[in-house]
Amino acid sequence: MLTNIVQDDSSKVNSSSNISSEVISKENTPALLVSAISSLPQNVDNVSVASISTLAGVCTPEIHPAIQQLYALGYEEGDTVTGRNIPPIDGTRTDWHGVLTKDNLQITEYSYSTKRYTGDYHEDGLSWLAEENCDKGIYYNVNGGRDNASVNKFHAVFWESDKGTHEEQALVNSLLPVDLTVAITTRRSTHSYLRVSEEYCHDLELWKHLQQIAAYTFGSDPAVKDLPRLMRLASFDHIKLSSFQLPGEIDYDTTPCKLITCEPDPQHSPEDILKYFAEVRAKLGIKDYSEERFKGYQYINSKLNQKKKGVNYSHENFNPNIFRTCADSEVSELHTRAKLFARLCKQKHEGIACDDPETAWTESLKKVHQAYKKEYEFPLNKVSDSTLREAGLGSEETLSGYFARNYGLGFDARGRNQWHTCQCPAHGSSSGNMDNLHIHAVSGAVKCQSDCTSAEVMTAFRQKAKDAGDTLWDATTYNVDTRESDNNTSGEATNKEFTEEEKQSWIQKKRATGLARWTDSRKFTGAISINVAHVSDGVPTTGFDPREIIAIKSGLGTGKSFWMRLLVENLKAGALILGYRNLLGIQTAKLLGGYHIHRNADEFIANMNNPNAVLSFCVDSLLRFKGNEQVFKNRPVAFDELMSFRKHLLISKHIAPSVRNQCLKILGTVLKICGNIILLDGHLNTAAVQWIHELAGTDRPLRKYYNEKNAEQRTIKFIVGTYKDGYEGQTKFDTDVIDIEGINNNDHSAVESLLVNSTEKFYSFSDSKDSLVSIHKTLTAANPLKKYLLVCADTSSEPDVVAFIENPNDELLKNQYDGVLVSPTGDSGLDISLRGYFNHEYIMLNGVIDASSGTQGIFRPRDPAIETYVSCVANSIAGRRDDNYDVEATRETLKNNFNAVCDLIDDKVFEELGTDYDFKTLIAKVIEQSETTNGRAAIETSVQYEYERRNIRECLNVLLQEAGHNIDYIALPSDTSTKNELKKIKDCIKDEKSEDIFDADLLRESEYTELRTKQHRTPSEQSAITKYKINDKLPGIFNKDISSEFIRKVVFDEPELIRQLQRKFFVENLDITKDFFTKQTLNILKGFIKTGQCLPTAISDEYPKLQAVINIGLLDIINLDSWNVKTPEVRNVIDKINGLEFQKRWGVELKKNKDRSLVAKKFNDKQAMILISEMLEWLGIKTKYLGRPTIDGQRVHSYAYDSKIYQKTDIMAIQECIAAKYAPEQFISIPESDTEIPFGESSSDEPAKVSTGTQLSIFLDMFSVDLVAA
């Protein structure tokens, strides 16, 4: 029905007009109306202003006009009428709830913020409204509800015309071939209504569509399309503050709102209304309605209505009517030009350097968007490596290192481990700091602590070199194109087999291939396509086979949960709802009238066998159904946010592998015996549905729906980066850009500045909890009278946060928060449908979460009118950008890893398993797991998740573009001051947390287990958990002479330090290493024998990597007094690095040749030295830089093992605890102290020892493998 109705079939109207599009597009609206009136067909010439003014005669004097208005629109006696009385200036608004009687309203005053009646009741509601009308305007909700959720039907199509005089407005309305149902004149506008036939009045999407067409047709306010829209009640005065005020008094100008038309009959069908509107457009010379035209018309109207912001949008072309009259071929271009013009006007108003707004209309589009290239400040000359060597560079020295060594004040080689340090030549230092510029010794990367760009630094160095007569001042190893910005001045090594253009082309092609594979992996094929705002309008809730799988892909805010509620009601069989977080499950249970396993534990248990109950629980809780799977028999099972459920179950580190294996076994059983299976997610893909289908049995019928309706479009300001004072380059771009000269792509300071200086209500989401905490502290300190809510792991137990998470809309209205800051911990399931509350949204993403989760965080507030700023780093915290997306290569690597660890097991060790399998058969069975349904799903999920994290910026852009949002790519000024202040606060927070952890009680294992499963933990409980984990990794560390500074170091500053030193211990103690990994592998095999499950992603790559570095002789290097690229031992390592065996074990990304066999990657000397540096760092082996001796006529960098670092107190403490943990018999026992023995409860005089189980369990974090439960 909806599809047939909403088409605006104006082609059936044969009327024509004499009005030219040129007149309409250039003249203001009143003149447009005059022109239209002058050219009306003869059959409407006899409609005079005088006759229109007498239309009030149809009204009945005995009944109040407001009551006539309501009855004419379809209200009936006893119906609810809601409204609001609004003062013309700041003051108290009065909400009210009325019941319609025969000739009056019985009204109770109401508090919208608390959703409660105040107790003030008015039998004669009209008289009370008249009293209120002394200083307030009287409004009612036309559709009978205060918010979207309260509206379940509409009464009429209506529009508000405020251009021209009342007479001109009436003449345009007279072009309709039927009389209006209701018409009301206010101070300067006319409110017009056409009543819609009752049978259509529950299709709310249809109503919105009709509202848009009405606004477009009559040139009225396009914003009049929200379900709870307030309009004026007839007969009450329009109140306006008088322009002349006596001192100490408030005076108003009043204009009666007159009911000039009231014709209850006839009612009109949507098809007829569309025909009426088409006739009007034909007579006015308005083009047929289209979504594109309306968007343009609405866009310009929205900008012109923002006069209070002071932006001057005056221009003859910036007229909404241009979209009602232009040719179809011009709509898209005009919309683009209008948006560009508006952006330039705003930037000009804000004092941001930009082009003249006039260029948006006068220049060609190509020229308007043209990238303005900045030429080199120094023309550079490409030189060969031999030229550089002849001039004094070592074989692996970079140009940036060379310039820093020769011209950097205070140069300190390897002053910070792998980084040279000196004073920045670009900005210097007001305090004489000689350590504010860092240059990586191997790669040549340049990092200024005050955010000078690499180009700025290199330009300053080159100037110094030029002044000194250095022949290398203008040298580069890169091909030079002066039309491009100089991104290549650091002198990093190039692949000698390619020119720079070839290399960049190859990189781009490789990245494009990876992105294409990722995009392909997200496809949802074989689905029934629908295009509806609410899933329930396009997907049935009856008629399914009892065993059918129903999979629905539909975006955020499209009512998937509401559809599920209708389905459950129709099935009359209850449902079991599986989610990935308890918060989401609690909200779903509440919506469906069910019980959550934790929130409603007693009711949940009591109803487990009740076939009509709705039960909600998290994936981890599947284990609770072990042995009781029959609970699911023939009952519907729903997966809410399946993609997140899948990710959590298959690859999350928060589920121990033994628990995961058991959950997978239970899930397989459940899916085979349950009733309907419901799969819901906005990011659903074919692979995820196939996973469930295969587990459930491919004999089950499957029906898939894909809702192509995009979420309401939002304009997103995507910040490509920040620039410093003096930058003269581009600040607006057609698409996302990275590596633009003068722009820092990894700086959030612009958004941070907007946040801390915000004066309007905002919502902020970030995957950096520390950033949000520091911003929250800054805001609360600067604005003590305002209210800000921080929702993250640290605050999850606070009552205000718990209340907000469960009922965000109500809590916003109740508390009137000025800002809400949310991290992913509190984000899941949030649905903020309240509109008009937040003015701004600020997003900061770093790659802690994947792009799919990032988009969910962005659109938790459903209001498309929010001004949204997105800042996403180019260099993800997850690691370097991954050019590859190869599931097969990952599967091959995982197989190699498992084969490597299986080499540890001999026949004697194998006997411990006590299995009927022979060794080879068992290993083959485990390796086959990579080809099983769960194994394939785990690998696919892992590859997709890691790709999205490492390439979060590219993937986020794709997701936003696919959803149809309008994206403005901009660069903004950096705010170093705000950034530095926030950094200081972050440091203080880290110090405070370190002290809290240090002072926390040391938990027993049972206490830790209990706290770990607690849903909402206090900060002190979280500190205690962290302390337990530290002690678990380093038994007895808190009996040593350490302080909170040690905690700061291992938790915040160097979180990888303990793991690195553990690896160092392993490579130095091979027998212990073999024993540990043998036990680990045995536990994997035991788990498989027990459950039949072993996901390939659960197999650690630690042992293969340790084996790899040992096999290539890396440890031989550190036993030398010094080494460099010419040292024989180093040459031997480089040769083996280029071998296939090493690369397979280390996990180098490999390709296959035409014969489908793996081919080793070739590393040149520079690349090999970088890899050696990375391996040493991974092993926790610290090195020192010895300088650049000349060997064979070349100066080379020389290094040595830095043994002094391991003599530092904190490093020694860590090493002693690691040694005591893995080889306790070789070391002195932990000294006794007043603290409780952390493990066990023995009070004997025997030294405390760590149990084998605890020894192994600490490696849960390190290896993602549960070594105890099996």
TrEMBL record:
Residues 12-21 have a biased composition (Low complexity). InterPro entries: Slr7037-like. It comes from the Bacteria. Residues 1-21, 482-505 are annotated as: Disordered. Residues 494-504 have a biased composition (Basic and acidic residues). This is Replication origin-binding protein domain-containing protein. It comes from Dulcicalothrix desertica PCC 7102.
